[in-house]
Amino acid sequence: MPRYYDTREKTAFGDHPAFGTNDWPPSFALPADDTAKAVVDYFAQHKDDPHLPASPWCARRGCIHLPDPGAVDPEVDEAPQYRALEWCFNPAARRPGETFVFLGWPKNLTAMEPINDSAHSIVAYMRAHGTGPLPATPWNADKHQLALPDPFLLQVRGSAYQVAKRVIVPDQHRAQPRVARF
User: Fold this and answer.
1) Are the beta carbons of 85 and 54 closer than 8 angstroms?
2) Bridge-partner residues for 130, per DSSP?
3) What band does 90 get if pLDDT is binned at 50, 70 and 90?
4) How far apart are CA 113 and CA 139, in angstroms?
């Protein structure tokens, strides 16, 4: 994730606090790393282009993607295909060497290897960003495209989800309520 300095504030040590975002940088942000510098430069050069993506995060690639002006992505992606390296049961029994399409998140990356770009993107995303919390599938069946979520938004949603699952339950033996976890 690109990191930026917030020029509106200063810390007790006199430097600017850093923050990360996968969106286009706000006007008060100064790049703190090479990826952020590339995003800032790209945005400055193409901000008036009507084909500017909504965000530098590309759900089809699972990373920051700064396309060439006028570049057109294909309308659909190839469904992710894997080759079983050993007996695997994800989602059904597969013999070693068998190739298959799997639209979910691989459970065992050592039992199957990706054999096309879509599957390679899913595996690279999982290795870079971990395995949870994740949506039900990395595949958008309506658009026939990869849909690899922004990991920053997953962290925010995951935190909100954990908070939403907590319920305050009054304890009869204490004056203060306790938190029950489900």
Assistant:
1) no
2) none
3) low
4) 17
CA distances, 120 to each of 103, 141, 164 (Å): 13, 18, 34
- Token pair, residue 93, equals 């029994």
Question: Average of pLDDT values for 116-129?
Answer: 89
What whole-number distance in Å separates Cα of residue 65 and Cα of residue 35? 10
* Nearest one of 10, 34, 8, 5 to 20, comparing CA atoms: 5
pLDDT (tens digit per residue) in 149-178:
887 776 655 444 333 333 333 334 334 434
pLDDT, position 34:
93
Question: In the block, which residue shows the tokens 């995003």?
Answer: 39
Tens digits of per-residue pLDDT, 46-89?
888 887 888 898 888 888 888 887 676 777 788 999 999 988 77
Contact assessment for residue 181 and residue 165, using Cβ atoms and an 8 Å cutoff: yes
Sequence spans of domains, the chain: 1-73
* Bridge partner residues of 82 (DSSP): 100, 114
Q: Which pairing describes strands 112-114 and 99-101: parallel, antiparallel, or unpaired?
A: unpaired
What single letter denotes the amino acid at residue 165? Answer: K
Cβ-contact 152, 19 below 8 angstroms: no
Count CA atoms closer than 13 A to 102's CA, side-chain side.
Answer: 27
